[in-house]
Design brief:
The protein has 3 helices and no strands. It has 89 residues and is mainly α. It is extended and about 55 Å long. The termini are far apart.
Length: 89
């Protein structure tokens, strides 16, 4: 039970987190094979434009800058996808 953080579901109670926790519990307690099927799933994969790196910078600066840019782009793509989903519903 050490691997079940007490506030994991509480801090962001999504269907995905609930299903993940149930899968983990079933795997641990019932020795069920993972993943168990609770509902149909849909996956959408999107790729963004490549990020160009400036040559000659210190590796730590490049890594930090790259991480920031990737986080911003991924969040932007997620925001767009969520807005599109809301329009469809």
């Amino acid at each position: 039970m050490y691997s079940y953080p007490g506030n994991y579901l509480e801090e962001n109670p999504t269907i995905e987190r609930l299903a993940e926790t149930l899968d983990k519990l079933e795997e641990d307690a019932l020795e069920a094979s993972y993943p168990t099927v609770h509902a149909d799933r849909e996956v959408l994969v999107r790729f963004d434009q490549p990020i160009e790196l400036a040559p000659g910078k210190e590796k730590r600066m490049v890594a930090a800058e790259l991480t920031d840019r990737m986080e911003e782009r991924v969040q932007s793509m997620l925001d767009e996808m969520n807005a599109q989903r809301e329009k469809q519903n």
